[in-house]
Each structure stands twice: as structure tokens, then as C-alpha cells.
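Quick one, T. Sequence first:
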Amino acid sequence: ILLWYNCAYNVHKIEGAMRATVTIDKDRLDLLMKETKSRSKTSAVKIAIEEYLKKKKIEKIQSMRGKLNFDMTADEIRHRER
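C-alpha cells:
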């Protein structure tokens, strides 16, 4: 991870990450930290974002159920020679 400080703009940058200011209800954030067993707010929010994105990806895959056509059955795929 590349970390640099730009004095002219007072900007901190970590490659692949960005700082953001958000307003979150204190009780919800406290509950989130408790549920994720996080010691920091940042960690709790990162976990929540990752879990949300994972859930959405699963929902998207599940929505394709029955819409894809395969030439082979699941058993044929599992037991085919490589």
C-alpha cells in the first residue's frame, strides 16, 4: 500500500482507498461494532460494506437461476475427466 501526504492540499491517500465523512447514528454504529466484534469504527464499516456487497452478489447469482442453459448436468461436470 502506498501512503503519501500532499502538503498543498492536506490530502492523505492510501492506494485503493479513500477517506469519507459520513453521518451515522451513534447507536447503530455502536451496535455494528458490537456485532462485528470490531475495535474500530473503520473496521466495522469495512466489514459491513463487504458483507453487503457479498449479499448482493449472491442475490444476483440466485436471480439467474433457471435462466442459464448448460450442455452438461452438474453430475457430468463433477465427474468428467480432466
